[in-house]
Design goal:
mainly alpha; Leucine-rich Repeat Variant; 15 helices; 0% strand; globular
Length: 238
């Protein structure tokens, strides 16, 4: 198994029409957040199918994919890492640490929101939960100059939310309330919305306490699942 095999299969499923659509969707124009990202137009189900086929790709070959300028190749590498991490444990627990270290060393290639969202909870978030990484890394990433590292930090807390642990989400959300980037506003709102499903009262108390600092986009995302009357009150009065 070599990276070139993966690249060939991705190109087999590439579509010029899809390439144009995803370039618009992921904002690759000049001055947009995805400027410079290169797509070839492969659908997500095809990426997942290829990733499963090459799940045992050696790390030296994964390095070629994750460092690629082509978005779908980076995406494929990350899906492989996630699948391998999820299969780890027991006698393979040591490989989880190797996967985590590889992910962190290459996090500068995790540079679009879909790449962050598919990997941060299932690798970094879970690794912290598994005691393979100290939780303080989230606080360091949350104040990074790199927007994608800040998104990795908050989205990684999704793993804890699903376990009913909300403290990390609230702590990082507070750190990120003043962020200048809309993609961070959306990520914080998304995580607060997920936390709301576990403990509505805690999220509502957080929003009331920090209302003047909460970006409007964050608020709209966070209260999306509220009962309509309560949602209107939050939008108008708080």
């Amino acid at each position: 198994m070599i990276a070139e095999n993966v690249q060939e299969e991705l190109r087999f499923f590439a579509s010029t029409e899809r390439k144009k659509a995803v370039e618009r969707f992921f904002k690759t124009g000049i001055g947009e957040y995805g400027q410079g990202d290169i797509f070839i137009g492969v659908a997500a189900p095809d990426i997942r199918r290829i990733s499963r086929k090459y799940r045992d790709l050696p790390f030296v070959e994964l390095q070629k994919l994750i460092a690629s300028p082509i978005h779908e190749e980076r995406s494929c590498a990350l899906v492989i890492l996630v699948e391998r991490y999820e299969k780890g444990g027991g006698a393979n627990h040591g490989e989880r640490k190797v996967i985590l270290d590889f992910y962190l060393q290459n996090r500068h290639y995790v540079n679009n929101w879909d790449l962050v969202d598919c990997s941060a909870p299932k690798i970094l978030g879970r690794a912290i939960y598994d005691d393979l990484q100290e939780v303080e890394i989230l606080d360091r990433l949350a104040v990074s100059d790199n927007m994608w590292e800040r998104r990795i930090a908050i989205v990684a807390t999704m793993y804890f939310i699903r376990k009913g642990i909300l403290e990390h989400t609230f702590r990082l959300a507070k750190l990120l309330l003043g962020d200048s980037q809309d993609l961070i506003h959306k990520a914080v709102g998304w995580m607060l919305r997920e936390a709301w499903k576990k403990d509505p009262a805690m999220v509502e108390a957080f929003l009331k306490k920090h209302y003047r600092q909460v970006p409007r986009t964050t608020l709209r995302y966070a209260i999306e699942k509220m009962e309509e009357n309560k949602r209107r009150i939050f939008l108008k009065e708080y």
